[in-house]
Amino acid sequence: MLTFKVLSALLAYPEPALVTEADRLIAVLEQEALLPPEHRQAIARFIDGLAGMAPLDAEERYVALFDRNRSLSLHLYEHVHGESRDRGQAMVQLAELYRLHGVEIDARELPDYLPLFLEFLSMLPLPAASSLLSEAVHVVAALTKRLTERSSPYAAVTAAVAALAARPAERAAVADVLEMLKPEADSLESLDRQWEEEAVRFSAAGGPDRAAVAASCGR
């Protein structure tokens, strides 16, 4: 499902090459029509806005938003487990899920990075991808709330991600996420720890077994 891949690209660091693909990204969303029309229109406006920015301005906006605010971290488990040991175990399990479906992670990677997770979902059948996304939708919804409060255009992207989940986020679960990493977490010490984490990429070793994925994730 290329829609997941488009949203992954939009949430990753805005490389200049992304702007050259603006029209194609919008076309993919329209052709697949997985998102409701209002979300497709919002994403098209976001892409148009990104294309109209100077590359350095787009990069500085991204860094100021996601790299300098731990409460807006794009690492999913940080919002659920914080710095507890449970986060490491959860990431091991997620990495194992990737391997189970034929995806090998390159070198030192953090599998809970949202753009990476979305790229993985793009390789799965839609029912399995939507079901698996539902397990993280409360984190995505919390990010959307925080981005909306900051009047950030990126709220349109995370809202679109949440719209692809098989089940909407539960209000209580979103509240728990918002309590885990409050804006006070955006301290220099917290940011130093976050910046020590490495960038993530992965590649597919063959394709995922679609029947197996649907069976294991369709719950």
Give the strand line-up of the largest sheet.
Answer: 1-2
Radius of gyration: 17 Å
Q: Please give the domain count.
A: 1
Q: What is the SS-derived class?
A: mainly alpha
What is the oligomer described by this structure?
A: single chain
Helix content: 55-70%
Measured between the Cα atoms of the first and last residue, the distance is 19 Å
Number of strands: 2
What pattern of helices and strands is seen along the backbone? HHHHHHHEHHHHHHEH
**Which ranges are low-confidence, i.e. pLDDT below 50, for 5 or more consecutive residues?**
197-219
Amount of beta strand = under 5%
**Mean pLDDT over all positions:** 82
Envelope shape: globular
Number of helices: 14
Summarize the main sheet: 2 strands, antiparallel
How would you characterize the overall build of this protein?
By secondary structure, the chain is mainly alpha-helical. The protein has one domain. The chain contains 14 helices and 2 strands, in the order H-H-H-H-H-H-H-E-H-H-H-H-H-H-E-H. The protein has helices at residues 2-11, 16-20, 22-32, 37-51, 55-67, 78-81, 85-100, 114-121, 126-134, 137-149, 155-163, 171-180, 188-195, 210-217; strands at residues 103-105, 202-204. A two-stranded antiparallel ribbon has the order 1-2. It is globular. It starts with a helix and ends with a helix. It holds the Pfam family Nitrate_red_del. Keywords: Nitrate assimilation. InterPro entries: DMSO/NO3_reduct_chaperone, NO3_reductase_chaperone_NarJ, TorD-like_sf.
